Fold:
Amino acid sequence: MYPCTSIAEHNSMEEILKKTVVTLPTYEMRDKSPPPPESNSLEFMLFYKSLEKEQRLEFLEKLSHDFGVDHRWASDLAAKLLDTQGRDVATILQVEDRLRYSLTPRYRQLLTHISKVQGGVKFLVDLRADLIEFASSKISDSPHMRDLNSTLKSLLSEWFSVGLLRLERITWQSPCEILQKISQYEAVHPVRNWTDIKRRVGPYRRCYAFTHASMPGEPLVVLHVALTEDIANNIQGIVREFATLDADEDVNKINAAIFYSISSTQAGLQGVELGNYLIKRVVRELQSEFPHMAQFSSLSPIPGFSSWLQGALGQHKKEGRATELLSEQEWREVEDVTGTAPGAPALEALRRLIGTSEWIHSDRLIHSLEPALMRLCAWYLYGEKRRGYALNPVANFHLQNGATMWRLNWQADTSPRGIANSCGIMVNYRYFLQETSTNSAAYMQNKFIKASEQVLGLVSQFQKSSKL
Amino acid sequence: MYPCTSIAEHNSMEEILKKTVVTLPTYEMRDKSPPPPESNSLEFMLFYKSLEKEQRLEFLEKLSHDFGVDHRWASDLAAKLLDTQGRDVATILQVEDRLRYSLTPRYRQLLTHISKVQGGVKFLVDLRADLIEFASSKISDSPHMRDLNSTLKSLLSEWFSVGLLRLERITWQSPCEILQKISQYEAVHPVRNWTDIKRRVGPYRRCYAFTHASMPGEPLVVLHVALTEDIANNIQGIVREFATLDADEDVNKINAAIFYSISSTQAGLQGVELGNYLIKRVVRELQSEFPHMAQFSSLSPIPGFSSWLQGALGQHKKEGRATELLSEQEWREVEDVTGTAPGAPALEALRRLIGTSEWIHSDRLIHSLEPALMRLCAWYLYGEKRRGYALNPVANFHLQNGATMWRLNWQADTSPRGIANSCGIMVNYRYFLQETSTNSAAYMQNKFIKASEQVLGLVSQFQKSSKL
Amino acid sequence: MYPCTSIAEHNSMEEILKKTVVTLPTYEMRDKSPPPPESNSLEFMLFYKSLEKEQRLEFLEKLSHDFGVDHRWASDLAAKLLDTQGRDVATILQVEDRLRYSLTPRYRQLLTHISKVQGGVKFLVDLRADLIEFASSKISDSPHMRDLNSTLKSLLSEWFSVGLLRLERITWQSPCEILQKISQYEAVHPVRNWTDIKRRVGPYRRCYAFTHASMPGEPLVVLHVALTEDIANNIQGIVREFATLDADEDVNKINAAIFYSISSTQAGLQGVELGNYLIKRVVRELQSEFPHMAQFSSLSPIPGFSSWLQGALGQHKKEGRATELLSEQEWREVEDVTGTAPGAPALEALRRLIGTSEWIHSDRLIHSLEPALMRLCAWYLYGEKRRGYALNPVANFHLQNGATMWRLNWQADTSPRGIANSCGIMVNYRYFLQETSTNSAAYMQNKFIKASEQVLGLVSQFQKSSKL
Amino acid sequence: MYPCTSIAEHNSMEEILKKTVVTLPTYEMRDKSPPPPESNSLEFMLFYKSLEKEQRLEFLEKLSHDFGVDHRWASDLAAKLLDTQGRDVATILQVEDRLRYSLTPRYRQLLTHISKVQGGVKFLVDLRADLIEFASSKISDSPHMRDLNSTLKSLLSEWFSVGLLRLERITWQSPCEILQKISQYEAVHPVRNWTDIKRRVGPYRRCYAFTHASMPGEPLVVLHVALTEDIANNIQGIVREFATLDADEDVNKINAAIFYSISSTQAGLQGVELGNYLIKRVVRELQSEFPHMAQFSSLSPIPGFSSWLQGALGQHKKEGRATELLSEQEWREVEDVTGTAPGAPALEALRRLIGTSEWIHSDRLIHSLEPALMRLCAWYLYGEKRRGYALNPVANFHLQNGATMWRLNWQADTSPRGIANSCGIMVNYRYFLQETSTNSAAYMQNKFIKASEQVLGLVSQFQKSSKL
Structure:
């Protein structure tokens, strides 16, 4: 429709914006104005898609800067609101409503209109993904861009409200298209082939996704569940176990539901709560399928533990506190196995060991490193914070949901990836259904982390032995 | 769950409200606060449903009055905004955002949370139906209630945005549940039995509905279409014609699409644009099924014409202008047929005639009344206004959509209902697809009605002959 | 395609047959012959459908007479088979196979080919319905027509084999088309309106049908089930009870499944076992839905009882044995109520009473007639036979399936129809799942009827009191 | 259910057979006998599945030998039929019917009953696969086993009659289960991964399958179609072309439908016509989707050509006719390229070349071998016969369907498999819809092969140059 050579040209940006981002109607006419023709929205979408990354940035900056709130209008109404204080309530309410209306950015209307055309919602989700990328890469972090992002986020929150989402159970009978997507999106424990994915939707497994009317066939957030006898302490038993692939489920062997992977698929929906609600819906679904089921828990990775540990070891070395993190006995083991001298050399050997994942082939090291790595990991999860909340993003997610930090599991993910990320340790965040809402509030408002005795015990060992 | 005797008691209203309408988090904590437990929303819903009509009114008044905007906070921030004028834009944007947040009524959050629980959206749609009923019956028309209504309407507008609606074609293969509902909802030309409804979804007919993810199986707005050779001028040929019930459609006989009935089913979605969008979507659908199709038109009833005419006749009589509405020749015919004296007696006879629908059995009357009733009706549709827009609601709907007032049809609905409502006259509002958006804007902004020569001719005859 | 005037002409019949009923290939070429073109089958179908009833009869007679088995060929091979006696087994098997092949009627191939074209199977089902009608009306009962009928029946039996049928549960979500058909087909307890049919697929009810790949959307046999606390003794409580229409089912109140209506919809599938298999499949279905359910029973009408009783009374009167059927006490009651003299007048009065259904409005008559009508009815069901099997067709059906004649219920169907058909009596045939196959064999092979003590008691009372 | 050790024991075979293969009812009782309990069929199935291959053979031999036709009964009735000659036709028909009945093998009933239980039809399909395997491996080729096979085949033919099959179009939206199966079954051009299969159901491709009510989710025969501008002469362009994977189809570029792969999936349905009917149904489907489409053709492999050629070369060498197959000029080229002496050495070199597929890397050889290999291949397809029909099974299939041997394509399949099987040559069998039924009859009855001028030209070149 557009000659490709010209659409991205500089001056056309302004033209397109002027044409498509129509002026806000007056307050009086706000319900009397017919929507602009659909072609407006389509033109905007087509133009934006034709732009290169840097051009998009420029375009969005213009949009957010030149088509936002009319500050003059807003301040006039603010003044008027002050004038009405003491007047009758009807007048106050009226002015408040006008003021609220005047605070609407002009581009908000455009976003709403775009949401109504075919493919519009998906377009806005992807546009927001761009905004997030620009912000996170610090290319652009203007207050106007933040305003645009937050306006768009609040619109997306309405449209992706839980009441409008559809829970779908994914099975081997689901359309191939959706199963292929789920295979691709699975970032936590990658899917290698048809048998892998068949396993994850087969007996003793459940796979659920939220989909949305505006993006049919597109799973927004995917939750993989294993149905087990006890709360699983090992991921290989879940994703690499094919014995039961054609078995019938024996309901008597199903006592626990293990959430072993949850993936969001749309970068542009960052900050729009979906995973949390998906877990809650799935719990309800499972309770109705297995009324006797009482144990719900994640089996979660601990991304970042290894690099945090490397950092901590480096820091100790630099500060000459090489011997603090492990007990004397533990250091002795390291020295023995690695044939190094005490102090810095042993510490350096330990760093190398952890860096190379080789220690996993030595039963002796596996055994001797366990207490130290477990308590360090417990501290990393429980004690390391960012703005007062858990530094580890997976922990933060489950704690926000109201889960309890329940059990650290040694040798839980012995895949190269698992060793490299977290020395093979995984953690169960357990959902005690009676407690999740109080836990969630305590965490979000008071930054209080609910943890089990095992975790608290490891943390206190760490505190005793280390002076981090 | 609640003992019925106590829940509706006076003091429990306040308790329930205090408990369920939680305080707005501070601006800083607005993204940090976990949603209140679902049970809050469920309790509110259950309580409300248990109330009688008058109790509901009382309850909503309390809600809107005591849990709205915090005026003090808003005015403080308005003052702050005035202070920041001249400061850097980041500061201004920040204060604007805080001000916007402070203008959020406290109950808005509750409404959002309710929308997320099962059946929540439907609950809110029904609650708004109550609000509208209270407002229209003038029982309650406080500014707070208007604010609540408008807050709820804007939320519903987001949730029922077109991008989230699903177009469904209803056929004889559709679930019985949905067909029964469509039969019940059809208010324009009532459905009498299975054959009637089978006809309306059979060959040479189309029936479309919008449904929504949050209310599965519930058609929100239903459009009935007849596929005809020419633009139909008669409804009986559409709803009472069963000859083609088992025929195969002959695509060569399909040149026009006649929208002969459109019904909204949810009182609580008043003001949320659905019908307009449904017509547009259906036009697209039909164009892709019948690429050669070029004529789109409604065949619409004219509710209110007869009673308006009765009123006008009464008024003329009272004002002693008995002879104005008809020409001399026309009055003579009436006098002849009814055996009455000229002037008031003839006018009275005419009123009676129209009131009883008996004239329809006299070919002579049918013939002699046609010119007068047609020009009166044209005036009623084109000239009678309410706040500048067409008084007749059906006309107003199609004119807003950008249709042209195209043709009045004599003897178009000879059912008792049709005679009683509009002396058997129906009107085509025609959709010229190239023009609808300009027509719509001209009507909504400048109150300009696009009409055909036939209609304008009748109007001008009326203006010449009558001095209404 | 055919000019209607000429197709049905006499000589064209022979032409059509000669053209479409191709010669059987030789035994050697039987797998080498390509099927005739589809147009052959279509021509035959079109021609047949264009014929009037009497022409169809003539046409089928020609088909069956002139295009059947080649008797000469068959007898030649029969002779050859006799010659091979004593020869090696391979030779014998070969001749047997040739003989079997020679006994194939030539029209059998045509029927098979028709079954392969679109709508072909349905065509053959309807053609067989014609055959059955001709046979039953004795218009034509030639041995050739019987052969054609039996050939077609055996083909239909293969195609409608249970393994090829699909069990569908019909609900209020099923396509309207199928629910309308089910309403129409329901002959036992007619469906009056939407609410009626909604009731029969709603809570505490199940409706199942067999459908077949070759006739999509067409239920072949329909079974209505009520889920009750005890074995129901009254039909009005099932089909006229709307209290639970929107209730949720309480699984604790479901102890029994009552088959209260079973209807075959295709006259042409007479003799092809479907109902029997449907009941068995449904029992399995219900057992898996309600594992604790242990009672399965019909609640069946007794068509023909009233007219049998009228006949019996007439016979007694004629034979001057007026007083035999009732006890002295019972006659006295009749005389009292009707004010008639003993003997023939009383008997005549009784006949009239039963004929008019008026007795149902007299509590006294209801009470006094009960013992006599119950034991007469028991005898009718248990003792009256046709070729050794139960005369009553419903009884015969359930007994063939292996059910037990379990309980007669007084005042079980008080609808006018129920009173007129069977004096309001209904019967439960109960399915004891462990016994059905032995019961069925005992009935079919030895004509033995399994009945409960209640039924046997009534029969023995009848035998004592009456000398029918 | 069965102790595994004992079920396969010798004497239990006879017991199982005696128990489950019940005696045929007498002619008079044939409609009066209730079916044996389902458990009979289930027991037979379970037992058979528990057997090892050799035990199955023994078991089936017993079944076919001891539970077949009652020869004495049949010969008695044959004698009776001879006696009735000259009697009235009713008597003759009666005896014929009895004779026909007596020729039913006793096991036929069992097979019918098995078909009615869940999974029964699939069991019989697999059982017949065993029978076919036994027969083809010459382990067992008794006349009784042949009878059993032919009885079972005729039953399967009824059950898998075309009217009972469902055509399904397979797309990327189809259940993953079915797509995985189709990937596995594709034997002609193997599917390597998700992208491969996505390609084969994507734009410009169609994939159709027949499924059957008794084996849900199981495609029985699968046809892959490419939609092209011209009749394709190369398979890599079809299965390795991904450029259009996400394109929209341009209907103007679709003039031809190329059947490039057809696979039967059930060994046990050998001889039951499915592929033929699938092609016909798909042609109808495509004609209704693309009314202007006029070219239908296969692009078929030529399995067996290379080995036939090897054999022919070997034969020539042995017979000292080394120089016959190629022209002098052609031999010279071979000698040049391979550096061999004329005569036997050159022929040996040629054999080796063809055996190793190396020649494909030499443009010169590709060029110089083309005429010879093309005419040899044309002869192989057209001239080589088995019992008078084309030796090549793919050719035989399409010729039976009425296709024309239309075009040989050089370098049409350059995959290793294609070179190894047929020197890279493929052939189009073209379907001229007006001719297929006459072609089919001419081929099947008179063994006449319809071929194009190109093919006939090559054949005649071969005949001139070679003295095979």
Remarks:
- The beta strands of chain A are 165-169, 205-212, 221-228, 256-264, 295-298, 385-386, 389-390, 404-409, 426-430.
